[in-house]
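PROTEIN SPECIFICATION:
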Amino acid sequence: MMELIQHINNFIWGIPLLFLLMGTHLYFSIKLHFPQRRIFYAIRLSLGIGADDSGDKNLSPFSALATTLAATLGTGNIIGVSTAVALGGPGAIFWCWITGILGMATAYSECYLSVLFRTRQKDGTHVGGPMYVLKNGLHNKNLGAFYAFCTLLAAFGVGCTTQANSVTQAATASFSVSPHLVGITLAFLTGSVILGGVKVIGNLCERMVPAISFVYLFGCFLLLCLYYRQLPAACLWILRDAFSISSLAGGFAGSTLQLALRYGIARGLFTNEAGIGTSAIAAAASGTSDPRKQAYVSMTAVFWDTVVMCLVTGLVVVCNMIYDPASIVGVSETNLTSAAFAHLPYVGDAFLTISLAAFAVTTLIGWSYFGEKATEYLVGSKGIPYYKLLYILMIYFGAIIPMHLVWECTDLINGLMVLPNLLALFLLRRQIKP
């Protein structure tokens, strides 16, 4: 089964799809006159300056952003960066970063369309996302249903099992905790929140995400201060490796341009989801009436997630490879970040484990909302209680299944979600205003 999934992923994530994604990011960057240049305006909007009143039943712009970040910040920034370097070489960090910069324009486009074509429910709340863009914008219910089904699978894979498994790996390595205990604890914590509804999810994410992110970045900057002599060499290694056409000694698998592209773009897409479209589900739940404003707010999620978090984590990993090569000998592809954080004074592995667990909980909560909206699209609100119960159970099972299989399934699901989302973006591109 593993070999079959790997063959499928090698086909899906071949050069054509990688160029399609990067081409999409570049196309919308040019078409929209590079909305990235207005990132500071977008950050001000996300903090509520100049934003519309969200109303009582819908999320505020910042809550929508926090819910998006809750779903995207997590293992992709920590474990995902580690696997990208291990499998694609240090050059994968460069392509992951480029994916984030250009992907901001695609995220803007996705969120703009989702706000434009969202549906207002009887209770006054908004619901939207790529499935509603396909349904209301392209008038294709079947394609919308296909995307919603993929989102549902992604909620159990990308948002659920991946997070639980990553926490298990870290907790077992640092504290020798039983995977069963980790799974039960995560399921209980997540379940106690998601049963409260979208406002509870939004309010919790609004408080937790900024605090966790600040603490994690502070730890990374402490390490970069320790590695300051290795930092220039690390940057040079990343740039050189990103364009290498022959196998070198970087990474566990050796690094070539194709490997760096494949794992850098795939991990960049996994962590910021620009091109997948799921972040637009949270954007559509905002009370903001102007699609342009909400699109700018949601665009900042890609900036914080990939342009900042993934880059900083990648620099820490590569600097440690130069600073202490012995620390990565015999280390699995998912533990390069752990090897780097082992040098953090006093706290070491415990800091990373706690950060990873905190990020995982917020990601589990954020993705539960995406899956809930997909379930509602497919079978109506009557299916939501059953979905929530299954989601909580899958957290436990995700904590005890093999890690490599989880990541391969994650790449497969992401690849399947890209195509209908990009189709909607291109067919409705004239509707998107800068």
The mean pLDDT is 84.
